[in-house]
Design a protein that fits this description.
The chain has 68 residues and is mainly α. The chain has helices at 2-27, 36-43. The longest helix has 26 residues, at 2-27.
């Protein structure tokens, strides 16, 4: 029972801090624009390559170059 005498004031202080933090965030405009930050991440994506690069052509053998 004695623990309730300690936990009740602690919980009320934490509740007061949470309400104060929320009020501060509202006054500073943290909740004014909720859509734009979510869309900004789409603009920063690096461009995707359209096609992989073509492999280099094999060197042509000259006459008399049959590997012997």
């Amino acid at each position: 029972m004695n623990i309730l005498l300690m936990l009740l004031p602690i919980s009320l202080v934490l509740l007061g801090l949470a309400i104060a933090a929320f009020a501060w965030a509202v006054r500073k405009g943290q909740f004014d624009d909720l859509d734009t930050p979510a869309l900004d991440i789409l603009d920063d994506a690096p461009p995707r390559p359209s096609a992989p690069p073509a492999p280099a052509p094999a060197p042509a053998l000259r006459e008399g170059d049959d590997g012997t």
